[in-house]
Design brief:
26% of the residues lie in helices and 30% in strands. The protein is of the alpha+beta class.
């Protein structure tokens, strides 16, 4: 992130009310602390003339609720209530720049035992100031992690469950300790899943590929946005298996995510990607994405919610 100062905005939604973040406290015995029993989402809010335009709000809420359904978390909230919470928080926090919004589901149940079917879950939300997660003009130094992405037969890869993000944390920590910016995760068959904090799109032999949606990668809304942009431009993307050699030989490696937005890889395991500069597909995606979040694209009206 682009500052050492805490980016946290002063008010959050916790225990079904808006409170200063210092008052948002959870018991040490909570299952959310003991077992990582949370499910979360991430949304971007773009500061536009004293208003915040939230990108794909409805889609992110739907994925959060689907995650709860997959895991078996009992939570009672409708989209209209969620929108009202975000509106109130924005009015209370009065952000003066772009923000990142983190809603998550938690339980304060202090039952000792790893089960979710007896615990009610609630929605909490905090907001932080966030411009660029990483410098978008510098190619990322990527490494293929020694850690593998877990299988959907072990725990859901489509739910953003808090406990399983230990996998991403291990991969990111390994990458940073070895002098890289970000990690790429393969599955146990050695096919690409995603980066530790983003989905991946690659250009290989002048064709575009992204890992299969039914594989180990998260079904990301920024990736879906990129795919829609490319479809609008009559550019085909193949959802197929991507192996290590394809990554090493790629003309472009593009990362997409809510926090990351659209970034590009400059090298993988020390092997340069072309000349280490931003490629034409990444440039196109960034141009159209900027138009969308600025309200200047035909899809802006559908994908932006202003408060």
């Amino acid at each position: 992130m682009n500052s050492t100062k805490s980016p946290l905005l002063p008010f959050c939604y916790f225990n079904q009310k808006i409170v200063p973040h210092q008052e948002a406290k959870l018991s040490i015995m909570s299952q959310s602390i003991q077992y990582g029993a949370t499910c979360f989402a991430g949304l971007r809010g773009y500061y536009r003339g004293d208003k915040i335009a939230i990108f794909r709000l409805q889609d992110h809420f739907k994925r959060l609720m689907n995650g709860a359904k997959i895991i078996g978390m009992s939570v009672d909230m409708e989209l209209s209530e969620f929108e009202d919470i975000l509106k109130q928080l924005i009015e209370k926090n009065q952000p003066k720049g772009d923000i990142y919004i983190r809603p998550f589901l938690y339980t304060d149940d202090d039952y000792v035992g790893p089960r979710f079917d007896r615990s009610p879950f609630f929605v909490a939300v905090y907001m932080i100031n966030l411009n660029n997660y990483m410098d978008p003009d510098i190619g990322l130094r990527l490494m293929i992690s020694s850690w593998r992405k877990y299988s959907d037969s072990a725990v859901s890869v489509k739910a953003k469950a808090g406990g399983v993000y230990l996998n991403s944390a291990l991969a990111t920590t390994e990458a940073r300790k070895n002098g890289y910016d970000e990690a790429l995760l393969l599955d146990h068959d050695d096919y690409l899943c995603e980066a530790s904090i983003a989905n991946v799109l690659i250009s290989y032999q002048n064709e575009l590929y992204s890992p299969q949606v039914g594989g180990g990668s998260l079904d990301g809304w920024t990736l879906r946005t990129a795919l829609q942009i490319l479809e609008d431009e009559n550019i085909e993307v193949k959802r197929e298996l991507v192996d290590r050699s394809m990554i090493y030989s790629a003309e472009e490696v593009i990362l997409t995510g809510t926090a990351a937005q659209i970034l590009f890889g400059g090298s993988v395991d020390g092997r340069p990607i072309k000349d280490g500069q931003q490629g034409p597909i990444c440039k196109l995606l960034r141009k159209r994405f900027k138009e969308i979040i600025s309200g200047k694209h035909p899809r802006s009206k559908k994908w932006l919610t202003e408060f």
